[in-house]
Amino acid sequence: MPSVVFEVVPKGELVIGRGCVVVVSGYNHDVDNPLSSLQLCIDDNWQTVKYLNERRDDLSMSLTGDVSTIPRVGFWGTYQLDASIATGPATITYNALFLDKTKETGTVTDVTLESTLHPPSDDKASLTTGAPVIICMTTYEPNMEFLEAQLRSIQEQSYQEWECLICDDHSSESTLSVIERLCQEEPRFHLLKNSDNVGFYLNFERCLRNVPRDSQFIALCDQDDVWHPDKLQRLLREFNNSTSLVYSDMRLVDAKYEVLSDTYWSDRKNNYSKLDVLMVANTITGASSLFRASLLDLILPFPERIGDAYHDHWIALVAFLGGDIKYVDEPLYDYRQHGENIIGQTVFDNDKDSVSIWQSIRTEFKTAFSLPVIENEEAPSAPQPSESSVAPVTLFEKPAK
Q1: Reported CATH class of domain 4-114
Q2: Contact present, 340 and 143 (Cβ < 8 Å)
Q3: DSSP label at 64?
Q4: What is the number of other CB atoms lying within 10 angstroms of the CB of residue 230?
Q5: Annotated region Disordered: where (predicted)?
Q6: CA angle, 49 as apex, 48 and 52 as ends, to 5°?
Q7: Residues spanned by CATH 2.60.40.650 within the chain?
Q8: 145-204 residue pLDDT tens
Q9: What Rg do the C-alpha atoms of the chain give, in angstroms?
Q10: Is the sign of the CA dihedral 310, 316, 317, 319 positive or negative?
């Protein structure tokens, strides 16, 4: 039996796009013979797995050798693929070197490498007008009253050069029949129907895959909000040559459409200028955003979802590094809060909550990749103010162009 066991590996189709990174993790079954090195290979390109002999408390009862102490047999790392790699079927292999100088080689997994995300043939939508703005909406068993209000608010936009892709995530036949009827009433609505339920994260990815590559702008849309009539026009007005994404404030309403708050920022801080803060807590919500379609080359494919990661968080990070982000300090749509929402308003204070959120991210990451969660592990300490007269340097500011 091989000593090296891979638990998290890429499977099936692996889309490279402009380049991608895949994560692998696992453990060495032999406690008494630690790994000295571990390398992965695709097409003669060997890359080293960085993290070896990590704690794996969860394996104490299933390993061979001396397990009287906490076993340090876990490993995890990444493998980077660039756009120049040959596409088609590929095998990921490994080469392991152990402390006693013995070696082990084998197969990690078989994958199919694709250069781009091509829409499945049964998912393609027919877009005929070449509209500059493509609205990407995802649905799954929507409240029909809420959905009709959302669609009506799109139709009533002051800016009318749009088309709307509605990607349904395998709702029931009765639900689909109503959505189809609503789409037939407006030729700019195009319904895509998933043959299986993939969840909201991949459903948004599937919707974005179908955006025509000659489009100029993309707006994300939920199934239960209400856009103000000038939403698209107001966001478009803020773009210049360097702008990658524009987003706005929102008004919070309940299921009965009673106003809860005139702003999203009553209990949390807005941020679109510091990457380190944006990485920890996203403030750029998808439904409030309009971004350049040219970003799709970097946005797609979505990275593997870890924990509670959201599609709009990934898009915000790509937009941050791909240009300038602007914010419109007025609510341009009504965000409906009700029991069926995926996520509601979240309170986050940059100063108080960064450590607890770091701990949450660490736990989610280690759980996702079969790594141990060490209860007394400390979060990175917050930087302390310098006593010198020199102003402290802020990490992760937007790179200078």
Answers
A1: mainly beta
A2: yes
A3: B
A4: 14
A5: 376-401
A6: 130
A7: 4-114
A8: 999 999 999 999 999 999 999 999 999 999 999 999 999 999 999 999 999 999 999 999
A9: 24
A10: positive
